[in-house]
Automatic annotation (TrEMBL):
InterPro entries: Enolase-like_C_sf, Enolase-like_N, Enolase_C-like, Mandel_Rmase/mucon_lact_enz_CS, Mandelate_racemase_C, OSBS_N. The lineage of its organism: Bacteria, Pseudomonadati, Bacteroidota, Flavobacteriia, Flavobacteriales. The keyword Metal-binding applies. It comes from the Bacteria. Pfam families: MenC_N (PF21508), MR_MLE_C (PF13378). This is O-succinylbenzoate synthase. One of its GO terms (biological process) is amino acid catabolic process.
Length: 350
């Protein structure tokens, strides 16, 4: 078996704002396996400034992984414990190699285009005019679940935007989720959650910064609005530590990004602990290309979770790979009439 890796830079169609800054490009890496005339493709979806494995020797780890591909998936997965995006890239590449085609990873009614997966429409931060336009576009496109990033502009403006949605659409019409990305302070978080809860929101992601275990546990206990942990899960590598974290904080939900938590296996560990503690969960992509998104979407369908998932990021880039993934009326479909066009020959190769 031969293995190589490639770097690829995804370009956003328009700068996308978060509480951590504005994103214009997104770096990603691919592991390519070749064996007996077949090819396996895996994406290592690192997000600089957020991923636990955003470290200076990341590329060295990819090179070492490719040089030692003969060790097999199980050994390499364990060896890459502190590199969750490489773990996922390896899982994906080996699964791809063993599949009928490189992209048919989990055959199902989803890949046959008989069933779809409901997803949320993502509203990026920006001026109130820009955010209003995004909201209007998502509703017109048929989304019934909208996720709005908050915490970067004035809180009163954000409350006003949410109120404007609720004036036209009840909670039965439109499910509203908000994502603070840790923007609230420990002192004002509870009061803000109380005000947000008046708007019949579904949940809020990561209201305060990760790592404040006692404060987050207190907030989850007192909150009038369900809290979903997101960044809090990043960098928790040991299975026993995952169980302990959820037992300590007791959130209402957790959000699983396979590229951040060790792929399918790492996500399954979190799910098991969540279910042991009556904690809900859903799956979200982390700005991967359509290759990684496809792997997450196909797997997610097999989990039989009927909640809207966070899988609508494939249309954000100008140079994403053409794929059968299609969004219609707030759901993700796998349109078999569309073909894959995966070409990274212009990227950095090793």
């Amino acid at each position: 078996m031969k293995a190589s890796y490639n770097k690829y830079i995804l370009n956003f169609k328009q700068p996308s704002g978060t509480s951590r800054g504005v994103l214009k490009t997104k770096e990603t890496w691919f592991i390519i396996l070749e064996h007996e005339g077949k090819q396996g493709i895996g994406e290592c979806g690192i997000l600089r400034g957020l991923s636990a494995d955003d470290v200076p020797n990341y590329e060295e780890q990819l090179q070492w992984t490719c040089n030692n591909i003969h060790l097999g998936l199980a050994v390499l997965y364990d060896t890459m414990k502190v590199f969750p995006s490489i773990q996922f890239g390896l899982e994906m590449a080996f699964k791809s190699l063993d599949s009928k085609t490189p992209f048919d990873l989990f055959p199902s009614e989803f890949t046959q285009n008989k069933k779809s997966t409901p997803i949320n429409g993502l509203i990026w931060m920006g001026t109130d005019v820009f955010m209003k336009q995004q909201i209007q576009d998502k509703i017109e496109a048929g989304f019934t679940c909208i996720k709005m990033k908050i915490g970067a502009i004035d809180f009163e403006t954000e409350i006003g935007l949410l109120k404007s949605i609720r004036k036209e659409f009840s909670a039965n019409d439109i499910e509203l989720r908000v994502d603070a990305n840790g923007a609230f302070s420990e002192t004002d978080a509870l009061e803000k959650l109380k005000r947000l809860s008046d708007l019949n929101l579904h949940s809020i992601e990561q209201p305060i910064k990760a790592g404040q275990i006692e404060a987050m546990a207190k907030l989850c206990h007192e909150t009038p609005l369900p809290i979903a942990l997101d960044e809090e899960l990043i960098g928790v590598f040991e299975n026993s530590d995952k169980a302990l974290l959820l037992e300590q904080i007791k959130p209402q939900y957790i959000i699983l990004k396979p590229s951040f938590v060790g792929g399918w296996q790492g996500s399954q560990e979190w799910m098991q602990h969540a279910e042991n503690n009556q904690i809900g969960w859903w799956i979200t992509s982390a700005l991967e290309s359509n290759v990684g998104l496809n792997a997450i979407a196909q797997w997610t369908y097999t989990l039989n979770n009927n909640m809207p998932q966070g899988l609508g990021t494939g249309s954000l880039f100008t140079n994403n790979f053409e794929s059968p993934l299609t969004i219609k009326k707030g759901s993700l479909f796998y349109d078999k009439n569309k073909s894959w066009h995966f070409n990274i020959s212009s990227s950095t190769s090793n």
